[in-house]
UniProtKB/TrEMBL annotation:
EF-hand domain ranges (all copies): 34-69
Lineage, highest ranks first: Eukaryota, Viridiplantae, Streptophyta, Embryophyta, Tracheophyta
Species this protein is from: Gossypium stocksii
Annotated SMART domains: EFh
Pfam families: EF-hand_5, EF-hand_6
Family matches, as Gene3D superfamilies: EF-hand
GO MF, one example: calcium ion binding
Keyword Calcium: yes
Record-given protein name: EF-hand domain-containing protein
Amino acid sequence: MHRSADYSKLNPRMNCCNCSKKSKCTRKCFPVPLTKPQVKRILESFDRNGDGRLSKQELKSALYYMGSHFPSWRAAQALNRADGNDDGYISEGEMDDLVEYVWQCGYTVS
């Protein structure tokens, strides 16, 4: 992420501001690891129905946005690790475990 850039303006598949292809980027983009608070804000922003929980589809969309190559598989793994009550959703109490798992995956933005 360009340090002054807002991640809401990033190209979700390239993780680069205003770029369609990394090789043609006119700005000097350097990968910067996401912080845990950034990961948490991104995940929370994908709660589309506002129920305070993340479904597998919402989680898959968030992981796709962060540049996961296999968001369906990664979402299943994240649910397996973070969904403590096995209801198929990540609730507020389980969010910290999810953030830790996603953060350890090492997503970066340019």
